[in-house]
Amino acid sequence: MATFFQSVRQGFGRGGNNKNNPPKSPVHSPAPHAHQGGAMSNSPSLSNSLTLDNLAANDPDGPKYFFQEKYAPLNVRGNFLTLCACPKNVELGEWLAHQIVEQYRLLHGMLQVIQEVNSVTGLPICNENTCPTMSAGRLTYTWLVEGRAAKISAPKFINRVEKWIVSKIHDPVMFPTDKLTGTPETFAIKEAKSTGGGAAPNTPDNASAGTNGPASSDEWIGQSSGFPQTFYKDCQGIMKQMFRCYAHLYHAHWLNPFWHINKHDILNMCFVHFVTVAKYYQLVSDKEMEPMQPLIDLFIKQQRVPPEALNGGHWSQQVST
Ligand SMILES: [Zn+2]
């Protein structure tokens, strides 16, 4: 039974968790270093952010300060591996479910920042005018509408992603919290194999190959906790959409509002945590992460994304211990 995840999910409200909310009202005050020349001197006037709100937020040729080391601080120290690695006594499926919920909670907090309504314009910071498409630099993400890829505005896209993720998290089939009624011998088989040391771990490569488990058996991640066969693939799908939201947050809104309200370090903290989980459990492909690659490379170089999260992550850790 998914008891661990059940206990975690109880704290997750449909309306969003406000525990670690970013500030309610973005104050468009100049950032501390905004007028001290240097690279920021080319930025739009920081004291004129009302005008900025009406400009296209996503200038693909605009300067990408967020890829530069001096603009990439974190507001915390420590190793994100400790938050990310699956404890020995917790089943991997339950742990992944917990990670997904936690990652969504963090992302939701960041999305609320750009959803804040400007009291002068009456529009959210991310609106149909600033972000007519869901873009990250030159890349535009599309949404499937009646089987066809459609370019929809970023606020619409993000709204759909959020609803979709919340519906997945609350879907009792995808994220079960009830006791298993199926075959209890699954536990015994699993136990025997894991203590025998000979069983191959459920690798993501196998799981994403379409069978959701090693070809030689019908096991899958989360099986013993009652998660469906598609569980790992669904986790990948959710994390992919979450990544796209982060890519838009950086490319379109790093300067306004995150830099303006001096919350870019919190955005970085959430993103480093996200990337660590994504890499450690191979939930988002390298190709998908390309729009944020320079920042990811920087975080890897600084070991903010810990080395253990790379090169196989969880599964290589399992083999080496
Ligand atoms: Zn936007």
From TrEMBL:
Identify the InterPro entries for this entry. MOB_kinase_act_fam, MOB_kinase_act_sf
Instruction: List the keywords (alphabetical).
Output: Metal-binding, Zinc
Task: Give the matching Pfam families.
Answer: Mob1_phocein (PF03637)
* Compositionally biased tracts (Polar residues): 203-215
Judging by the UniProt lineage, the source's domain of life is: Eukaryota
Which parts of this chain are annotated as the region Disordered?
A: 1-45, 193-219
Binding positions (Zn(2+)): 126, 131, 248, 253
List the protein's name: Mob1/phocein
Q: What organism is listed for this UniProt entry?
A: Penicillium alfredii
